[in-house]
Amino acid sequence: MRISDALIFLPAPPESSFLYTGIYDPKLVILSIFIAVFASLAALDVADRIRLADSPRTHLAWLALGALAMGGGIWAMHFIGMLALQLPCGVGYDAPLTLWSIVPGILACGVAIEVLRHANPGQGRLLAGGVLFGAGIGAMHYTGMAAMRIDGLVRYDPRLFALSIAVAVVLAYAALLIRYRIGHRHWRAAIAATVMGCAISGMHYTAMAATYFLRAGDASIAHSELEPTLLAGIVSVVTGLLIALAIAATIAARYQETARRLRESEHRIRSILETTQEGFVQVGIDMRIEEANPAYCAMLGRGRLEILGRPIVEFFTPESVVTYEAEMRKRAAGMSTSYRVALLRPDGSVKHCEFHGTPIYDREGQRTGAFGLVTDITDRIAHEAYVRQAVAVFENTAEGVTLTDPRGRILSINPAFTRITGYAEDEVVGRSPALLRSGRHDESFYHAMWAELAATGHWQGEIWNRRKNGEIYPEWLTISAVHGRDGQVESYIGVFSDITHIKRSEEELQRLANYDPLTDLANRLLLGAQLQHALERAGRHGEQLAVMELDLDGFKNVNDTLGHPAGDKLLQIIARRLKEALRGEDIIARLGGDEFAIVLESIGGARDMELVAQKIIAAIAQPLELEGQLARVTVSIGIALFPGDGRDATTLLKSADTALYVAKREGRNTFRYYSRAMAESVRRRHEVEQGLRLAIENDQLELWYQPQVSAASGRVVGVEALVRWRHPERGIVPPAEFLPVAAETGLILPLGEWVLRHACRQMRAWGDAGLGIDHVAVNVDGQQIVRSDFVATVAAILKETGLPPRMLELEITEGFLLENAENGMGTVMRFAEMGVDVAIDDVGTGYSSLAYLKYLRADCLKIDKSFVDDLPADATSAAIIRAIISLGRGLGFTLVAEGVETQAQLNYLRSVGCDLVQGYLLARPMPADAVAAWVAAGNAAQAQRARLAS
Questions:
Q1: Whole-number Å distance between alpha carbons of 290 and 310
Q2: SS3 (DSSP) at 476
Q3: Omega before 517 cis (within 30°)?
Q4: d(CA 418, CA 395)
Q5: DSSP assignment, residue 843?
Q6: What DSSP line would sit under 536-550, residue for residue?
Q7: Contacting residues for 851 by C-beta, under 8 A, at least 6 apart
Q8: According to the model, what pLDDT value does residue 257 have?
Q9: Are the beta carbons of 633 and 620 closer than 8 angstroms?
Q10: Tens of pLDDT along 271-282?
């Protein structure tokens, strides 16, 4: 039978006598409704899962499962609902049609689920889904009704028929709206499934109400048709299978979904851990590392495999190990803790980190380890240290610091600000720094300052401000603008220091730079500036100007005798006397040591200058008391005049110095004017001085020797060493030209040492050659004894050359011994103790008593040439020589007469008992190589005379 043949409508209800009236088993009705709801729940869940399918095959599987669950649920609900109806007639079911009736429901539900598979289906899809579900429910119901066989006919009420379809469509649409439009409420799935179940059961029971079961005498149930009991069994089996399938699929799906979500969650967590800048480390109960992310490995500076399985504390500093173990005890008690540790890196550096540790438990609640989130705080600690240092600097710096807002209102100050200005913080915060203004700067100064600050963001300079007590003080101020990220000025920082002491020091330094601190007179630098101004004035007005240079005579003796404090006091007294002797406008300066300079402007003439010079000489010559003793010094003055002696400061000072030198050389305690002849003489002296220095350095000196002969026998007893300078251009320079210069300039010290060394070396060579000379005599200047340890020098040279001390004779002038009696006699005694002979030179010229000779341990007296020159005619000279020889013999001295140039002089000296003679009559000074030949020839002649005499 065709389905269309079974779907017959009646225009009006039949009489009740023609109807079978049935009743429903309530238990089966409830069961049918439950099956409908459950099938709906499974189908709607499958619809959600289809969109999550990751392949077409999975998609089709879920679609088929959803269609079977929904279609089978509708089919099962229908037949259980049919079984719940108990009719007073035989009931059977066409087996093929009964089975085929499930197909329309499955197909319709499959199409509906496919339509609804999107995560958020639109209104059109919801409506289409409702229609499809409703149509599927109706198609399955009425197909199933066509399979029903009773002892009668089945007819339908058209109105209720249409209503049943409408109930199915409307309630299905309502279920979908609830499912997809009420957000993510946890109860929406159950309500949607319930409403969908109502759509199925509501359509069924509305359709059953539209069905007429009519009596028909000729109707009967075929034996091939299913009995209700058999249909109940089939439905039970199908329903059970569908329920089992749905449950299994749902459980499997949920398990897979849970697994997928766990995998995704694990992936997300691992991705976060792998990419986050925060470190992650997991340790076991034994504190060994079980897991670590790249960030933690980077903090350690090691690879992941390098640290896994190793104790976490192996990478901590010793202090951090103690901290970690203490925190582990807290975690053992179930506490989450935060603490700081320091990680050791392979290169020896340290990373400071903050650990947030949390214990890990298993399902039984046993602690299995812990994990930690690690934050690198090295930069933060460095920043914190920087901030602490900045605060410490701000609080403790000696400079005052002011922080203002962009408008210049004070926000904060440091303690140094209060210390310098006297203002406390509560007195200045919110006010302008203008409260410190001293009034010494005008508005243009501040405008320029702020203009530079606005243009460059920085200003630095000296400024005068006023303290709270009203005192004005100088400060060095630096103002800097602080800009924000947007480039706008956020604040200004002012740093200043009180430079009052610097100002005072500058003034003192300025004074020290221009004034002599001992005498308070102008120094050489200020003199140059003052003299230059004086010259400019003199040049403009056509006036003369005089420059005097003064040098104290005898100052060194006062300094050496009474000490430097006395010398300083003497200089102060001299400065005061000069001020008193001169006009207030005259310039007085101390050039250094005991040298002074005076500049006189608007002088009248030479006579006026002489009066001033004599006044100065007289004032300085006055006795003065120093350290309780009277002392006296004199002064030598050199004078140069502008414009005749020079038109600039340098030339005038040089000319005055030249005149001073001449004044000292010509007797001291006097004055001399500069002249060109004087300058030429000084120039020559300077040339000699410089040339002599080069001569000593470049070995241009030579030693010549003059023999000393026995007056009685004529044998050569010794030689006197005389220095000669062989100039490369001038030839031999006379000793009288360079020896005085050497004495004046101090070159006598290196020159004398050179002569002594070479004389000893030559005497040793002659001794080794057996020349037969007893000694070599070397002249000693007094400066060698006074200004050096001459005794030590002699000892060193004798040791260096290997010359026996007895073969060296040192000649010291009588004048030096008389002027330096104590020092001289002591030196002579030390030489005597060494075995070195000492000869007293220029005997008789000292104009003093010869009684001092008895205290000297000298060996020889040399009679000065001035007494020999007039022999034998001059009775006075003859008497002096006889007295010297008589005194010398009585004291045990060897007598030597120098300057013997005539036979008469030699005969007289022999007659009075002189021991040795030297002079041009016997031999002139000669080079060393000539001495050997001369001595050999003399010895041969003497031997010849001796043979003839015998």
A1: 9
A2: strand
A3: no
A4: 11
A5: E
A6: HHHHHHT--EEEEEE
A7: none
A8: 66
A9: yes
A10: 777 777 788 889
d(CA 645, CA 656): 9
**Count of Cβ atoms closer than 10 Å to residue 715 Cβ:** 16
List residues bridging with 896 in a β-sheet.
Answer: 862, 916
Q: With contact defined as beta carbons under 8 Å apart, do 796 and 812 qualify?
A: no
Q: How many C-beta atoms surround the C-beta of residue 450 within 10 A?
A: 12
Tell me phi and psi for residue 705, to 5 degrees: -130, 135
Dist. CA 151–CA 657, nearest whole Å: 166
Could you tell me which residues come within 8 angstroms of residue 465 by beta carbon, excluding any fewer than 6 positions away? 421, 436, 437, 438, 472, 473, 475
Give the H or E element holding residue 475.
strand 472-483
Whether the Cβ atoms of residue 666 and residue 672 lie closer than 8 Å to each other:
yes
Q: Is 763 helix (H, G, I), strand (E, B) or coil?
A: helix
Residues 6+ apart with CB under 8 A from 548: 597, 598, 599, 600, 613, 616, 637, 638, 639, 656, 671
Catalytic residue at 898? yes
pLDDT for 366-401, tens place per residue?
888 888 889 888 888 888 888 888 788 878 888 889
Terminal Cα-to-Cα distance of the chain (whole angstroms): 200
Q: What is the pTM of this model?
A: 0.43
In this prediction, residue 682 carries a pLDDT of 66
Compute the distance between CA of residue 244 and CA of residue 100 in angstroms, rounded to an integer. 22
Length of the chain as a residue count: 950
Q: Within 13 A of 696's CA, how many CA atoms are on the CB side?
A: 19
The residue written with tokens 């269309």 in the block is 4
Distance CA 213, CA 809 (A): 176
State the angle between helix axes of 158-181 and 188-209 in degrees (0 to 180), rounded to the nearest 10.
180
Report the number of secondary-structure helices (H) and strands (E) in the chain. Answer: 33, 33
Torsion of CA 434, 438, 443, 448, to 10 degrees: -80
Q: Which helix (H) or strand (E) is 683 found in, with range?
A: helix 676-697
**Which residues touch 393 (CB under 8 Å, ≥6 apart)?**
none
Which tokens belong to 146?
């066509």
Q: Which residue stretches of 849-927 are H helix? A: 865-868, 875-891, 903-911
Q: CB 227: neighbour CB atoms within 10 A?
A: 14
CB under 8 Å to 132, separation ≥6 — which residues? Answer: 108, 109, 111, 112, 115
In whole angstroms, give the CA distance from residue 917 to residue 909: 8
Q: What is the pLDDT of residue 940?
A: 74
CA 44 to CA 222: how far, in whole Å?
40
Distances (CA, A) of 849 to 46, 191, 277, 815, 865: 149, 152, 108, 12, 20
pLDDT of residue 809: 94
Q: In angstroms, how far apart are the furthest CA atoms of the chain?
A: 215
Residues of the chain with pLDDT under 50: 1, 222-224, 848-849
Q: Specify the pLDDT at position 836.
A: 92
The Cα–Cα gap between 688 and 533 comes to: 36
Distance CA 578, CA 174 (A): 129
**What string of DSSP letters covers 322-358?**
HHHHHHHHHHHTT--EEEEEEEEPTTS-EEEEEEEEE
Rounded distance, CA 920 to CA 791, Å? 32
Catalytic residue, from 314, 610, 898, 901: name it. 898
d(CA 169, CA 175): 10
| Type and span of the H or E element at 838 | strand 837-843
Distance CA 703, CA 743 (A): 18
Report how far Cα 222 is from the mean position of its chain's Cα atoms: 112
Q: What is the dihedral of CA 919, 923, 929, 932, to 10 degrees?
A: -110
- Among 25, 80, 13, residue whose Cα is nearest residue 214: 13
- Element at 439 (helix H, strand E): none
The C-alpha angle 881, 882, 888, rounded to 5 degrees, equals 85
